[in-house]
Amino acid sequence: DAGVIQSPRHEVTEMGQEVTLRCKPISGHDYLFWYRQTMMRGLELLIYFNNNVPIDDSGMPEDRFSAKMPNASFSTLKIQPSEPRDSAVYFCASRPSGTGDSEAFFGQGTRLTVV
Amino acid sequence: GEDVEQSLFLSVREGDSSVINCTYTDSSSTYLYWYKQEPGAGLQLLTYIFSNMDMKQDQRLTVLLNKKDKHLSLRIADTQTGDSAIYFCAIGDNRLAFGKGNQVVVIP
């Protein structure tokens, strides 16, 4: 398996534009997570899905952020409109059901810069 | 929600031992984890410990868990330059709560 695949790796956009980040989880993993990493706040959980259903979106900062998982192999995180303070590295992670050795695998992240 | 605290920075000489500490608030998690993030990469699971254990050793890594004090530590023996990274502790069963990470810099 190629692991969790995120695209794009880097995104530079102007304030006000819509940004869509994409994630392909590992096949067979029931859980998918979206995280945001910044120097100030560290790693924050934005939202997670179980079997394509959003379970907890309390970490989504504002209504400008939305996430979907239309099927088991694809998820998107959309920011509309984007703002400079959204600049961060966004990680997608997936894991199978269970705990302990059912580790969460992370993608390489999308570095978003909003100018 | 879960609150996970870590110290932010550690420098250590190559060959010495490193100890990274983490405290947490929620003691109901079954497992506690240590993740490593190298520059420009995502997080990778280093090791984990079951909540009813006090210690787990995995080659150069030793995890200590003090449930009474809600304190988790990671010791890296014979630290190498390749150990330079950010280390995150994480708590949780389905949803993981991460600390802000501890940057370890290994000085040759």
Describe the structure.
- The complex is a heterodimer of chains A (115) and B (108).
- In chain A, 0% of the residues lie in helices and 54% in strands.
- Chain A is an all-beta fold and 115 residues long.
- By secondary structure, chain B is mainly beta.
- Chain B contains no helices and 11 strands.
- Chain B has strands spanning 4-6, 9-13, 18-24, 31-37, 43-50, 55-58, 61-66, 71-76, 85-91, 97-98, 102-107.
- In chain B, strand 4 and strand 5 form a beta hairpin.
- The radius of gyration of chain B is 13 Å and the shape is globular.
- The mean pLDDT of chain B is 91.
- Classes of the chains: A mainly beta (115), B mainly beta (108).
- The A-B interface holds A 4, 31, 33, 35, 41-43, 45, 48, 50, 55-56, 58, 91, 93, 99-101, 103-104, 106-109 and B 1, 30-31, 33, 40-45, 48, 50, 88, 93-101.
List keywords for this structure.
heterodimer; A: 115 residues; mainly beta; four-stranded antiparallel sheet; 11 strands; globular; B: 108 residues; six-stranded mixed sheet; five-stranded antiparallel sheet; 0% helix
